[in-house]
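Team,

Forwarding the record for the chain on the shared tracking sheet. I've put the sequence and predicted structure together so nobody has to dig through attachments.
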Amino acid sequence: MDANAILAAFASQGFVNLGKMLPDEDIERFGAMFEDDHRQYHYFWHHYGFHQAANYEALVTSPAFDELVRHPLLFPLVEAVLGGPTCFGEIGLRRMPAYQGKLHRAWHRDRPHFDAHALRCDYVQLIVYLSDVDSRTHCLSLSPESVDEPVLHDNGEQLERGGIVDITGPAGTCVLFNASVLHTATTRPTDSVRRSVQIYYGHRARPPLANDSSIPPALWRDHPDAETRAFYGVLNERTRVLMRVFAESDHGEPHA
């Protein structure tokens, strides 16, 4: 799918299902990295939302996830949607285990629409499925809305107007959506585990997204590439607090 088709999809519905974008070798590599992180750094994982566990410090525990954040097949599409200098917002590894309860949805918008942007995008989310997702498993669900329609702040009214689209697909499926569009994790009775990586991107001139993910100095301060430093350089307060607490000595070595 080319950039023009993606922009058209965002204008008409606020999201695009890119299909299985990750090559099989990347699915295997990032899937193994996900499982290693969940096993080795279990103390970074915490209960999240409804029936989920998450690690939002993936760049700290498994720094190679930067290779997914700026994946050469995906990152240019993010830049095309945002239409200007892009920054990192956050990354979350999410695990939704088997479940035998009732179907559950918690519809929400992550932040208000950014009306100054042609597609009303302040931050966009890229969700990457690392498990097969179908009508019998947990999935991402969205309620489409066009940039030509007024924003309906009542969730019921938006669902009545836009309906519900459940996003399914094999492992490696990638979805890019406006974080301001009404969406939810759909939790349904299943024996399957859904593994996903959820990455936010925004505009460098806008305030930070949230305080869930801290950004390692190796990316925003010490990286040899200036563009990488700029991409990771919109620092949230979480990062600033940790930098103050773990300040190094003048010689670059930890205090004894």
